[in-house]
Amino acid sequence: MTTTANATRHWKKFATALAGAVLLGMVTLPLMGTAQNTAVPASSPAAISGASSAGPGPAPTPPPSDAVVARGEYLARAGDCISCHSRPGGAPFAGGLAMNTPFGAIISTNITPDYEQGIGQYTQADFARALRQGKARDGHHLYPAMPYTNFAKLTDDDLSALYTYFMKGVQPAKQDNAKTSLSWPFSMRWLMAGWNALYLHQESYAAEPAQTAEWNRGAYLVQGLGHCGACHTPRSITGAERAPTQRDGDRFLAGTIIDGWYAQPLRNTTEASGTGLLGWSGKDIVDYLKTGRNKHTAAFGAMTEVVANSTQYLSRQDLAAIATYLKSLGDNPGAVAAAAPPVSSEAATLVLQQGSVNQRGAMIYLNNCNACHRSDGQGAPRTFPTLARNSAVSATDPTSLIRIVLQGSAMAQTQEAPSQLAMPGFGWRLTDENVADVVSFVRSSWGNQAASISPGDVGKVRNALVKSAKAGVNP
Fold first, then answer.
1. CATH classification code of 345-470
2. Per-residue pLDDT, 419
3. Residue 201: exposed, middle, or buried by beta-carbon count in 10 A (0-12, 13-18, 19+)?
4. 109 versus 19: which is more confidently predicted?
5. Among 90-99, 272-281, 292-301, where is mean pLDDT lowest?
6. Where are the domains of the chain?
7. Is 428 exposed, middle or buried, given 0-12, 13-18 or 19+ CB atoms closer than 10 A?
8. Distance between CA atoms of residues 213 and 211, nearest Å
9. What is the distance, to the nearest Å, from the Cα of residue 183 to the centroid of all Cα atoms in its chain?
């Protein structure tokens, strides 16, 4: 439910046995949750109880313990609920965040326990139905900007704890928000029934008996509340994840463009360019999710919000479980590639002098980047990210790197790494050709072996940023 849910995708109608109106409904909403984030996989989950949704409010229940409220808060952090359900300057969880789509703006809802504007009248059954079936208390369909296809995997115990937190641990808030406004026929929410029939599986996560408890815990978090696939798994033309779990093939967490950023593969594999988690240890993954930085890179784009609002609050035990699960994916399960030897100062100087295969790029780097990232591309640990064998630098799709050069980026601010260091944008002073030269230089130096880019590649990213700025959108 991170603001990465504002992604714009390319959609077509698809031929199925469904009626034409339902076809339209099934291709409307290519919206993803992140950030846009937790209990042991189901063993003996408690049933969710509550009064009928037709009643005036939740049935009386015994006062919850502080432990249950605290657990629910932890789960809400894991789901990164606050990122989408809080607008800038608004009350926490009171909604109002606009997620712009080609079909209109979807406005996040108030999920505080306010009786009139929020979910104060929701029973546990109503709450569970919203998260598992994508239906509001009055029965209308929710749009999958809220990743209920992922949340459907939650156990009854976790749904109950979440409900308790939102009812007892969140302050009620009244806040006048804009209304969701989609163009016809996408405004007809009932059309989502066809999409749900094809892609919504309401079963809770089922533990893999051949795997360890830690692996299953990681899978539960990644596939469920963390909804990592919502951003890192490619989507079909109908808006569904091409592979919702590791059982569905190697497209699961294979990386994709979302909201003008390249969400990198989260699989333990690598291409010649260096994309993937093969070079990362489990500790590297934990450090990244806990602090927003590690020895390889730093979080950028929407991922900074995910770290700041969500993953930094997870226990290291849960983060280690996530790492164990992610490292099991791909064609090198569990392996950690040996670190390449650092480039010597003499070799680094030679790279800059000769410019590798791009003399212009070397000079632009020397004049704009060298002070922080150094002549050997190593930067400063956890301060200025290394560029040598950095997965973001070497990614198959260079969109994120181009965007960082043009727009700049700020690190996540976390409890364990409170310094929110930032890189300024250089789009105001570098032409498309300049940016193409320096990015191509970086992608081919210090052991990097990624393809060069063209001024046209830069122009596409720049134009998208200009268009977003004019529309008042911060992608």
1. 1.10.760.10
2. 84
3. exposed
4. 109
5. 272-281
6. 3-199, 213-327, 345-470
7. exposed
8. 7
9. 26
